[in-house]
Amino acid sequence: RLKIGAVFKEILPNVDIKNLTVAQAKEIYLKDYWTKAGCDALPYPFALCLFDSAVNQGVGTAIKLAQKACDLEADGVIGKGSRAAFAKSGNEELSLFLTYRALRYTETKGFDVYGKGWIKRLFHVALEPNKKAAYSAALFSSKPTTKLGSSLIRL
Asked: CB of 50 within 8 A of CB of 66?
């Protein structure tokens, strides 16, 4: 069984959360978050960060924050313009997106109780591409450096 919070029960009132399987949860995440936020057409790591925001802050909010970071009209609609801007975004836009997410959290009810965890989540997501890069480098290197080797231990 999965341990899924009360929020999931609120969002999906017709789903038997208590008996939800991993496969069913994956299907929900794919359909209701990954696909709705347009992550399927975006490059890594922007897709990962947008997906995480969609799950944690809502699909509409995630899209609006990403649009704002890419200097687009923040209408919450993932159209051709948004897809193109997200796809060509770089570190600057991704950093702004994560910043806007953090600022949004500070205005969210419950920040005084849950804020530390929400912000920590942002850092985990932001660091994920570095772990992927370190892992890929180690796979294709016959002699990983000591620094790289120690990074892999933490993956």
From this structure: yes
User: 24: buried, middle or exposed (CB in 10 Å: 19+, 13-18, 0-12)?
Assistant: middle
For the chain, the average pLDDT equals 81
pLDDT digits (tens, 9 = 90+) for 122-134: 998 888 876 655 5
pTM for the model stands at 0.77
**Structural tokens at position 44:** 């890594």
CA 55 to chain centre: 7
Query: 121-128 — which CB contacts under 8 Å span 24+ positions?
Result: 121/52, 121/56, 122/98, 125/48, 125/49, 125/52, 125/98, 126/49, 126/98, 128/45, 128/48
DSSP code at position 76 = S
Cβ neighbours around 97 below 10 Å, total: 24
The candidate with the shortest Cα–Cα distance to 101, out of 57, 37, 43, 36, is 57
Contact of 97 with 69, CB cutoff 8 Å: yes
User: How many angstroms separate the CA atoms of 133 and 142, rounded?
Assistant: 16
Specify the residue for token string 């193109």. Answer: 84
